Amino acid sequence: MTPIFQLSADHVTAEAALDPIAATLDGVTTDATALTDLTPDGFAARAELARRTLAALAGLSPESRTDRIAAANLRDSLEAQLAWHELDEPFRQVQAHFGTLSSIADSVRLLPRRDADDWHVLAVRMTGVETMLAGWQKTLQAGLDRGLRAARRQALETAAQAERYAGVHNALVEEYGDGPRAGELRAGADAAHRGYAALARFLREDYAPHATETDGVGAERYAVAARLSLGADLDLAEAYEWGWAELQRIETEIAAEVAKIRPGASVAEVLALLDKECAVNGEESYLDWLRAAHDRALEAASEHFDIPEPLRALDVVLAYGSASGSPYYTGPAEDGTRPGRTWWPLGGRERFATWSELTTVFHEGVPGHHLQIGVAGLAGDSVSRYARVHSVSGHAEGWALYAERLADELGWFSERGTRLGMLAGSALRAARVVIDLGSHLDLPLPDGSRWDFDTACRFLHERGLAAEHRVHAEIVRYLGWPGQAISYKIGERAWLRARAEAAAKPGFTLRQWHEDALAVGPVGLAALQDALS
Q1: Percentage of the chain surpassing pLDDT 70?
Q2: pTM of the model
Q3: Domain limits at 455?
């Protein structure tokens, strides 16, 4: 192992010790009974680790191409993290749906449950939830005291999320049953639920009255957040203009596809028709359909990708208690004890449209996230440990959106309405670009008006074609996670440009290019461009 790869591995180990919650989510083996310190001291310790690693990296020279890629990715990532810390973001980071709260809850649900020792670890982690959330409250209160305020909307939405979580771990206690660990599991779940309830009260009663009414974060904070999500700097004005043009291009394709399904009908009429005709009823039927769709995708992708045997295991689960509205993926554990998993929120539905969700199967499963992240995890010494366990949103979501487009190229949207589902999903991602940039930077719409929450919701439904059950949660998510919503389309653009450049050279084959591109590992878009050029 080269010194740069060793430094990368050592950083992951040290980082996991300081943040066991993130380690569980990233699939890194660490002491799962330890707690993540969410007080100001904990955030300061993690920032100091980044500074030490950067200082050590500055004294090392790359010995190979893979060394150069690893060093550039580690440097870019840690510098972006430090820029975020230096803006005092930990003191005002209240992010609904995919923030600190959901990370803690998911870290409980992702722990293994194979034997009595595993159940003990799970009980200890549940018990620690109350302490971790109390520490987070101290950080947020310190932020208020310094005038660093999160948006009131995020505080209230996170409070509602915490209230929903105040019972979420009962299912684990029931799953275990009446064995010798039952008492400590019950006590742990009760402690976690007290922690969720206390956080909800704090956010609703103590924090929200002093939070800012402004949803957007402004240009300086947005640029730093976007760099974190993309792994590259971005011309924000150009991206906003491009987002509008891309949305209009997709809408032209949608109109043509709608005309094929029912000539003369409007987009809304065809969407309603497909919702009626191409759907399944009930959670069990939905889960059966999802599992079968993932199996078919894996079989089809095997003709175009070399899929390692460990990646043929993929869990497909329903995400109970989630209000995010959006499916998501969690990768395999670093030690192989946990497979990759796709999560599917119910969104209060009893009937599930399949025509619009097949494209998401390709996005979250194969050839999307599961293939991309899984290949990186199995890459061994060709990809640094830091890159293997740290997905960059622009790289990951860009690839997953590219995977949807690839599925279209390969003819996988043959069932009625499914290609329209892919195009509708692409329109949603393009709409995200203009909503996210416009809302956070206070940029004008084409008619000169400005973005607000209601305008964004209406736009996402009407132009982004988002289902009504997703709209509210989606907009809340964008406003609480600046720069992430653009990573899908901006990332896809980077992947398509890289492929076009490669295709212009002699000897290009798509299968080999995919293999070479994925072999680079999950790096930022700047490092990806350098690696593939």
Answers
A1: 99
A2: 0.92
A3: 228-281+355-380+396-488
